Amino acid sequence: MERLGKWWFALPPLGFLCVASLIPVVSLLMEGRAAASMALLLDPSTQWRLGWSAAQALATCLVVLLLGVPLSWFVARHAFAGRSLLLRLMMLPFVMPTLVAGVGILTLFGSGGILGCELDESAWLLLYGNVFYNLPLVLRAGVEGFSRVPDSHVSAARVLGAGRVSVFFRIEWPQACPWFLSALCMVFLYCFSGFGIALLLGGYRYATVEVEIYRMVAYELNLGDAAVLAAVSMGFAAVVALLHGMLERRLARPLAGHALALRPVTGWQAITLAVCCLSLLMVFLFAPLAAIVWRAAASGAWHIWLEEETRVALLNTLRFTALTLIGVTTIGLCHAFASRHPVMRAMAWLPVVVSPVCVAFGLLVVYPGWSASLALLLSGYVLLAYPFVARSVANSLDSLPDSWLAASRTLGRGTFSTLWFVVLPLVAPALRRGLAFAAATAVGEFAVTLFLSRPEWMTLTTLIYQRLGRAGQSNIDAASCLSGGLLIFALLAFVLIEWPDHRKENRA
């Protein structure tokens, strides 16, 4: 892969990151430093926002850890019908737009919801929403961690007389713990920097720092204090991202020995455990999605899709997504080809570390003359979506044998010919998955749209938010039906992401 790692592949992604991320972030930090005042940081309201943002993120980490350890251990250790499908379905919530998930959760627990809990704008509702989104990350990491426990270690412990509990805490848990810690870093980052779920489910009382930044900019035009909070938020995110990067380097070690063989689910204890695990997965991962389907079907408000307002929002959503994918493909492929260098591989994490609110606010501060312009809006979309393509394709490139590329060069093909005829067909499945994630991100993006969009650029997500803010059951039904449409799109993206690669399976 050395010849493909041309230095000029790094120019487009580095230039884009500098213009769309580094310069806005640095400017936002300088703005926050210039406007910083001890009065703001000592204000009880500010301290409450910061403390609550960290507390709800830590609480989510604790809950997903308590749920994720037994669930992932069961899936990693047992063979049962539908196991492969379940592993794929675990990531379904992660591709859902935040407003779709929020509408589903309100349909379950909100006023007039299915369960009649009346939990509108509560801490418990926000915590459930965080668990819905982030439990799949911990489950995937836990399954991978437990699957990498060497069979020889477990066999040796059992020969020495260790029981199942002792084997778990002495052998299995130490091996899987770094995987859980790495996933928990991302969970904390997503929850602390969360916007859509916190705005919809937490309300003003339980608003996070990101929601407070949006309120200061959109309703008070208090850019100075908003910049201070944004700088503090990015500081938290940078520390957690650094810890995650250190853990990722440790996880890059190859598997030592053979993995444990899967056990069949036999006996009443194993069957009871399987039923409990599947029930928990249904409650925390799939219940909100099923509630959306039920409410949309029961409301009969599908005529909302025929209204002019919806047609405009749908066309805007499709237009922005298509334009975003063009930029994502170009920047993402160039970044992937340049990712042979460790610095470039690390740079792909930069847009993930910075929250969408800080991205949009930074672009607004640095380029005020471009505010409410299509170029600025699409830049925010591409910045948040292209790392999925870059990381997916880079991982696929790492698995390509150098001999294949050497054979192409021996036949007289140049760099671009090798890329087009050899590399791109081989990484096409990874590119497809990355583009599906990018499309799901663009369709469901909410924070950037609220900051940078014009009223006539209303998308499906902003239309759902407007409907939820209007009084009347008809608006709630309309929001449910619109959410059902976005749910269908997310399902299509999920199929593209998780569709099995039969060519890879056949080679294996």
Provide a descriptive summary of the structure in words.
This protein has two domains: 1-35 and 317-457, Orthogonal Bundle (MetI-like fold), CATH 1.10.3720; 37-288, MetI-like fold. The two termini are 22 Å apart. α5 (98-109) packs parallel to α9. It contains 23 helices and two strands. The model is unreliable at 502-508 (pLDDT under 50). Strands 1-2 form a two-stranded parallel sheet. It is globular and about 70 Å long. It is 76% helix and 1% strand. By secondary structure, it is mainly α.
Which class of secondary structure composition applies to the elements?
mainly alpha
Lateral arrangement of strands in the main beta sheet: 1-2
What is the number of strand segments? 2
CATH class of the largest domain: Mainly Alpha
According to CATH, what is the topology of the largest domain?
Answer: MetI-like fold
User: What is the percent of helical residues?
Assistant: over 70%
- Cα gyration radius (Å): 24 Å
Unreliable spans? 502-508
H/E series: HHHEHHHHHHHHEHHHHHHHHHHHH
The largest pleated sheet is described as:
2 strands, parallel
For the structure shown, list the relevant keywords:
2 domains, two-stranded parallel sheet, MetI-like fold, globular, disordered C terminus, mainly alpha, 508 residues
Sum this structure up briefly.
The protein has 508 residues and is mostly helical. The protein has helices at 11-35, 38-42, 44-77, 83-89, 98-109, 123-147, 151-159, 164-192, 196-202, 209-220, 223-251, 268-299, 308-337, 342-347, 350-353, 356-366, 374-398, 402-410, 415-444, 447-452, 460-468, 473-498, 502-507; strands at 78-79, 263-264.
